[in-house]
Specification:
The chain is an alpha+beta fold. It folds into three domains: 88 residues, 2-Layer Sandwich (Phosphorylase Kinase, domain 1); 243 residues, Aminoglycoside 3'-phosphotransferase, Chain: A, domain 2 (Alpha-Beta Complex); 126 residues, no CATH class. The strands form five sheets. The protein has a five-stranded antiparallel sheet with strand order 1-2-3-5-4, sandwiched between helices. It has a four-stranded parallel sheet with strand order 13-14-12-15, covered by helices on one side. Strands 6-7 form a two-stranded antiparallel ribbon. Strand 9 and strand 10 form a beta hairpin. Helix 4 packs across helix 8, helix 7 crosses helix 9 and helix 15 crosses helix 16. It is globular.
Length: 478
């Protein structure tokens, strides 16, 4: 985030709270291009946001104010500077439903507390769909006012061009387009006059004081009830077991029936159709972010999506004539290259303790954090001040330094043990962090050495990040 935007947000923070900013933490980027920073001072914290997309800002802020007035669990908007595309909002913490899920499940077993959170989330979803619709200005919706034929066509083409094409999956374009038209006709039979959250999944739900709170609804629009339920229950990496998914579906129907009349058979038939289109939309995103933008963690969701498609084809085939689409989906579930994407990835980071330990983007938590500050520091000498642990001069320094060699001789066996266990147990992600004072010399050298060691020894993907070199001195992305 640019320094001038941070300064604006700091001023907004002080004006709103009456407190000075004492700490600032730039939050990790996710699937969007929005940027966030957490500001704190004297026991109060808030989140500052910058987004150059003014229409998206208008949608998020307008929806937030409407939902907040309706008593829905969304962040309060504290301050807005629309001219500079920044706004300040309530801090809901750092624990998403996905984080909570990872800590409260064991294989296919969901804890009682996790099931309870999912039930509460479903109850709140019904309120968004019904109460949230009342008096909502749908003119704020962006880019469409409704999840209509045009929106559906965009999603299906997203799947076709960014997933099928980039994954080199063959198909008959004309036949597939005709099937898309039949699918859209079928989906539009369902009542579609409710608020559709659009991206109702575990990473957009925060857990605060044991309750679910909600973010990232700026893509919302008018649509069918089934879509958001499909988004939640078929959330790829959440990997909800089928019996629990069915129980939560029943809980949704029971909750909805306390508010409106429900034709359960019609709802269920169209629900399956919305599950299909939601998964295809998600796969389009995985293809765009993963195959095209080379963001590997998006690719890791693909095997989960294929698992869900396989289940749907066997248990919930659609009652419409879509032979080419069925053939394409069936071919995807047999594609060994796609099924093997989810091999172990070892993320290795170097960082500065001044900025804090890196956030685990995989959502798994855990891993290793090694403190390099006990090792002799070349940064103490002027000739190394502008160099990093990747430069020849610093490498030679450490090659003559017994403290570094002894340090790494302790690190390598520890990490190797975990890598071997993770491979054998089919785990998907391990994170290893090396920290030093400036994140420039000792941590960078250690991360480089471990990366080389792991890649030479194991059949895994290694992602190497030198965080301090990816940030300028004021915390901006280069």
């Amino acid at each position: 985030m640019e320094q001038d935007k941070i300064q604006l947000l700091m001023t907004m923070f002080t004006k709103h709270s009456g407190k000075q900013v004492e700490s600032m933490n730039i939050l990790p980027l996710s699937g969007s291009y929005r940027e966030y920073v957490r500001l704190s001072g004297d026991g109060f914290s808030a989140v500052g946001a910058y987004n150059a997309d003014k229409k998206e800002n208008d949608a998020f802020i307008g929806f937030s104010e409407h939902f907040f007035a309706k008593g829905l669990k969304v962040p309060e908007i504290y301050s807005v500077d629309s001219q500079n595309d920044v706004y300040l909002l309530e801090d809901l913490g750092s624990i998403t439903l996905f984080d909570f899920l990872q800590k409260n499940r064991s294989e296919d077993e969901f804890s009682d507390s996790l099931i309870d959170i999912y039930k509460k989330t479903i109850e709140e979803l019904v309120l968004f769909q019904l109460r949230g619709t009342e008096g909502l200005n749908f003119d704020l919706c962006y880019p469409r006012k409704a999840f209509d034929r045009q929106s559906m066509q965009w999603d299906l083409h997203y799947f076709k061009y960014y997933f099928l094409k980039l994954a080199q999956v063959p198909f008959d374009e004309q036949a597939l387009e005709e099937d898309f038209q039949r699918l859209m006709d079928y989906l539009l039979e369902a009542d579609h006059h409710y608020f559709l959250y659009r991206d109702f999944q575990s990473r957009n739900i925060m857990i605060k004081n044991g309750q679910p709170w909600f973010i990232d609804y700026q893509g919302g629009r008018k649509g069918a009830l089934q879509y958001d339920l499909a988004s939640l229950l078929y959330d790829g990496k959440a990997d909800i077991p089928v019996p629990l998914r069915e129980m939560l579906y029943t809980h949704y129907i029971d909750t909805l029936k306390t508010h409106i009349e429900v034709d359960e058979e019609s709802f269920k038939n169209h629900y399956a159709g919305y599950v299909y289109i939601r998964i295809m939309q998600a796969m389009g995103a995985y293809g765009f972010r993963g195959f095209y933008e080379k963001k590997e963690h998006f690719l890791k969701s693909i095997p989960y999506a294929l698992k869900n498609i396989s289940y749907l084809l066997q248990n919930h085939p659609l009652p419409i004539h879509i032979p080419e689409l069925n053939q394409v989906l069936e071919a995807l579930t047999q594609n060994q290259q796609l099924l093997k994407i989810n091999a172990l990835t070892v993320t290795i980071n170097s960082f500065s303790y001044k900025r804090g330990i890196p956030y685990d983007m995989s959502g798994n938590g855990g891993g290793f954090v090694f403190d390099c500050r006990a090792v002799h520091n070349p940064g103490r000498y002027p000739e190394y001040a502008k160099a990093t642990g990747k430069d020849k001069s610093v490498i030679k320094f450490f090659e003559k330094e017994p403290e570094m060699e002894a340090f790494l001789n302790g690190v390598f066996p520890l990490v190797s043990t975990s890598v071997e266990k993770y491979i054998n147990r089919n785990f998907k992600h391990l994170m290893v962090n090396f920290g030093c004072t400036g994140g420039q010399h000792r941590s960078v050298y250690s991360a480089e050495r471990l990366s080389e060691y792991i890649q030479n020894k194991y059949p895994v993907t290694v992602e190497l990040h030198h965080i301090e070199q990816e940030m300028n001195p004021v915390g901006q992305r280069r």
